[in-house]
Amino acid sequence: MRPTLRPPAAKRLAGQARRPVYRARDHQTRSVMHNHRWRAFSALDDWVGKEARPISLRQLMVFGRSLNEQRLLSSANYVRTELPRRIAHRIRDMQTLPYCVVANHHFNDVYELYYDAFDKFRRLPEIRSLEENDSFCRDISTTLKAHLSVIPKLAMGILEVSADDLMPAEELDLFMNAILRSRISRRVIAEQHLSLTETFHSPAFEPGVTVPDSDFVGKVFLKCNAADVIQRCGQAVLDLARSAYGDGVALPEIMLAGHQDANFPFILSHIEYVIGELLRNSVQSLIERQIQDGHAGRRPPPIEVTICESSKHVAIRVSDQGGGIPRDVLPHLWSFCKGPKSQQILANLTRVPRMAATLQEVRVHDPPESEVKASAAMASYVSSLSSLTSRPPNLRLGMGLPLSRIYAEYWAGGLELQSLWGYGVDVFLHVSKLGNKNEQLLKRAMMDAV
Asked: Which stretches are annotated as coiled coil (predicted)?
């Protein structure tokens, strides 16, 4: 059974398809059609019929705070059954894309990675011992490292398909949103289990002992202080700017105001990525406006970051006077297709073979231990993230804002932006303070409705 075109897309392609492009890639299309991995089979159908079982940060916290062997094995078996369930839905999404889209070699590479992971994890038997769990963790680690190429491959595939007008940008963005949310969800549960296993094997671990509120439970930081995160990300962003523009360019000050004691449970890499991207955009805009005006040595206006805490939410506003967003760029701001800048971004992506989507991968150096105000676990966590992958500090990939919005919305938050062309930008980040909202996953019904 071949992948099927959805009727609306089929009609559009019939009327708009650019035949020379399609013929040029016909050999790729045939290779996809004859690859047995693209054919429907009962195992995939069975797993697609199972909906993902979403979790919340609070569930991760409560489950991991009193860790013992039984809970660790229960966590292992949840991950063992949930990974193939979530991957299966994304495989089916790719199978329902038009032929001329899935023939793109970037998409095909991602499909192969997903298929291999699905086939591996669906075959694993129930995990009954610590030894079996250790073997399972090695499988998870291997898969996570192999999938570091997924984000740049997807981004390049989206840009190439969009440039050839093979599929509407709105549908490509919906597909990208679904596949990236699912990727985040799988890495959350997988990395959480790896972290719990590491904790369990730690010499200092005592089964059943409750974790202090100031510490991590797995990858969940129980009391993520907004001001600390902003200051830490701000310093990292200024270091990046100094590395990119040189010592002769004056850097803006990052001014913090509002409820600086606000804290909330969160996965540190998620919130750091979002805050880091927002501050990077502001710093770059301010510096480049000063350079354009011939005032590179003059200090730009400050970036104002305001924290507002309520009973259920924490809101963070980032305001700059960097000139705002050009009108021709604004319509493509939240899109992965990127409009007039797509070719330059595509060229930049070829320099990034792997991407973890963390702030740490673009840091010039790790912060001194004295600057990290959390536990020793956080310092270890930051260093381990830095070693995953790296990319040039000022390389623009065109996905910072759309990916930040996905991270924000994943835990039932939000990200909004207001631009005043000629003056500056205000960005508003909303975070759930209680951690009691389930992860926000796109269901297949939402994809099929396109």
From this structure: none
